[in-house]
Automatic annotation (TrEMBL):
Keyword terms: DNA-binding, Transcription, Transcription regulation
Keyword Transcription: yes
Protein's recorded name: BlaI/MecI/CopY family transcriptional regulator
A GO term for molecular function: DNA binding
InterPro entries linked to this entry: BlaI_family, WH-like_DNA-bd_sf, WH_DNA-bd_sf
UniProt xrefs under Pfam families: Penicillinase_R
GO biological process terms on file: negative regulation of DNA-templated transcription
Taxonomic path: Bacteria, Pseudomonadati, Bacteroidota, Cytophagia, Cytophagales
Residues passing through the membrane, by range: none
Keyword Transcription: yes
Entry-linked SUPFAM superfamilies: Winged helix' DNA-binding domain
Family recorded in the similarity comment: Belongs to the BlaI transcriptional regulatory family.
Length: 122
């Protein structure tokens, strides 16, 4: 998967939320200050070229939909984060965030429970 820019990620978030949308639909749910219509349209076309967004023709316009699943994007982004910033070590990343976020006892126990459940499934 190609890396997405921050602007592309923001548009993808809106498309995942809407499931399918015209450019104006995406623009309506963007936070203020809203980008220009042409900016959103251009970013969506870039996302299409990257193969993460598709479209159907409806009337004189297009309805866009995400091809890339949100969960797949998250998985690839986390792998990229671990590889590039934590020497490929999930342990180093988890330790970093546990220290930085100052997790309380309940949060740590919840994280350990999830890790143990995941280990049992494998």
């Amino acid at each position: 998967m190609q890396q997405l820019t921050r602007a592309e990620e923001e548009i993808m978030q809106k498309l995942w939320e809407l499931k399918e949308a015209r450019v104006r639909d995406v623009l309506e749910i963007m936070p203020e200050p809203k980008p220009a219509y042409n900016t959103v349209s251009t970013i969506i076309r870039i996302l299409e070229r990257k193969g993460v967004v598709g479209h159907q023709i409806e009337g004189k316009g297009y309805i866009y939909h995400p091809i890339l699943k949100e969960e797949e994007f998250k998985k690839q982004s986390i792998k990229h984060l671990i590889t590039d910033y934590f020497e490929g070590s999930f342990h180093k990343m988890a330790s970093f965030f546990a220290k930085e976020e100052d997790l309380n006892k309940e949060e740590i126990e919840e994280l350990l429970t999830h890790l143990k459940e995941n280990k049992k499934r494998k």
